[in-house]
């Protein structure tokens, strides 16, 4: 088996007296979709902040493509191949959809023209081509979430961190987003999807699942194993994971 693309090793983070992450480890391989699940406050966003360089852990290490990246600035990590989305989507409202994406594409493009061309290709991939020249402020929440992913893809990542990408969407919109995440894997992009309680979609899109609860990893495995894990069922208030959201 090949070495993991991402390896998080025994990461711990505390904010004052609150232990946000405690000795958390996980691995992600090329093209894999890893669902990172847990209730609100489980530590998913904190872990994303550690991986993307926004936050330095109190203990532990993160390796990406064989290199230790704890202590790297976020822009260096982004250039190395890790991109992320955020729970609260804040596009440049007055800029067009294409130009929002072109801002990220400038990291690799040789000119503004090339950045815009690359951006149009990405906008088409995420299904926003009809809105390409409209201001981002005119988009719905679902469309803004797709734009957020498009801006991350403009960095040409090998790994994409999707922070609560399903939050605020209707069931139909969630289904569409799930299909979109699967398409990322088909393009060879690995993804870690942080999801709260949309278990029906977690089972559908993920190759593996890591479960966090109160900052600790309580389970890891394929969807079938997680669905039957007593610790996971208890953490989710006794609700069988295959039923409902």
Return the structural class: alpha/beta
As an assembly, this protein is single chain
Radius of gyration: 18 Å
Spatial gap, N to C terminus? 34 Å
SSE series: EEEHEEHEHHHEHEHEEHH
Count of DSSP strands: 10
Instruction: Note the beta-strand portion.
Output: 15-25%
Q: Please list the strands of the largest sheet in the order they lie side by side.
A: 6-7-8-3-9-10
Q: Unreliable stretches, pLDDT < 50, 5 or more residues?
A: 240-245
In helices, the fraction of residues equals 25-40%
Number of helices: 9
Main beta-sheet annotation: 6 strands, mixed
Broad shape: globular
Mean pLDDT: 89
Structure description:
- The model is unreliable at 240-245 (pLDDT under 50).
- The protein has helices at 44-51, 74-80, 97-105, 112-125, 141-153, 171-186, 199-205, 223-227, 230-235; strands at residues 6-15, 18-28, 33-37, 59-64, 67-68, 82-84, 159-163, 190-195, 208-213, 216-221.
- The two termini are 34 Å apart.
- A 6-stranded mixed sheet has the order 6-7-8-3-9-10, sandwiched between helices. A 4-stranded antiparallel sheet has the order 2-1-4-5, with helices on one face.
- By secondary structure, it is α/β, with parallel strands linked by helices.
